[in-house]
Amino acid sequence: MTRCAGQSASFSVTASGTGPFSYQWIKDGTAITGATGNTFSIASVSGADTGTYCVVVTGACNSLTNCASLTVNLSTTASALSNVTRCPGQSASFSTTASGNGPFSYQWLKDGVDISGATAPTYSIASVSAADAGAYCVVVTGTCNSITNCASLTVNEPTSATGPADLAVCPGSEADFSTTANGTGPFSYQWRKDGVDISGATNANYTVDFAIGTDAGAYCVVISGACNSVTNCANLTLNTPTTASGPSDLTLCPGQTAVFSTTASGTGPFTYQWGKDNVNISGATNSTYAIASVSATDAGTYCVVVTGACNNFINCATLTVNTPPTAIGPSDVTVCQGA
Description:
Elements: E1 2-4, E2 9-12, E3 22-27, E4 30-31, E5 39-42, E6 51-58, E7 63-73, E8 77-78, E9 84-86, E10 92-95, E11 98-99, E12 105-110, E13 113-114, E14 122-125, E15 134-141, E16 146-155, E17 160-162, E18 167-169, E19 175-178, E20 180-182, E21 188-193, E22 196-197, E23 205-208, E24 217-224, E25 229-238, E26 243-245, E27 250-252, E28 258-261, E29 263-265, E30 271-276, E31 279-280, E32 288-291, E33 300-307, E34 312-321
Parallel strand pairs: 1-7, 9-16, 18-25, 27-34
Antiparallel strand pairs: 2-5, 3-4, 3-6, 6-7, 8-11, 10-14, 12-13, 12-15, 15-16, 17-20, 19-23, 21-22, 21-24, 24-25, 26-29, 28-32, 30-31, 30-33, 33-34
């Protein structure tokens, strides 16, 4: 007789001949107390009940012994699956080891749906993608029962990042670089300038507090996540302060044309505003300011405010309007002949 653990088992015998009959059941050579009927039953078998069961039947003339064996199959168990975390492109494998009485059969499922052909103790995915993430279970079936074990597959998201952006600042200003990481962290950061690691620059932001000419260059950040690293770069440009040459002093006569001009240097774009005697001249916003025909009232100090990316620069010149010459005399004279 073969039973699974927890099932009932019953042996019985039918005696023939001249009675009355008596019965004694024996297990592995040892009499079972109280087992004196023609039937011996075990309500719920376990592994310890496995053995040879005999019954000694005694009648009027003789005794007879008959035997049978009880085999108790072990319940099916299986080792737990381990959760797996992978990056895209890596392989993933789930495995279980069955115990109990076989033969064993296996069926793997993903998110509750049978995986076609997945009927071995191990299930593998050669190259995972995001679509493979989910709950993987295996149903292990043995002689007596089935057991289901499950684990999850997590597919990490590759690391990507936005920023930093190119910066152009004026000398003495702050330059703030920043990056935003995406994907599966945790993330680590390392900033570099012109290919050389910057000591202690290991946050998502990097600031140059007081930019000078030597700070100009290429700034890169290496962002490392769970799966990979990416490098993003930006340039820091130092703007040149605004300076200007001109205008030059002018001395003209009434009616002549006066032309003031300036040439800006530095980082533009540039804007211009001309003024006379500290008062802005409406519409005078080019690098040149001209008066078509000067008069005495045009004399004065002319200044231009040149504004560039970093600063303002003021240059001034004077316009002198000469006074036309005048003269008195000579007067008419009448004299006598010979006088």
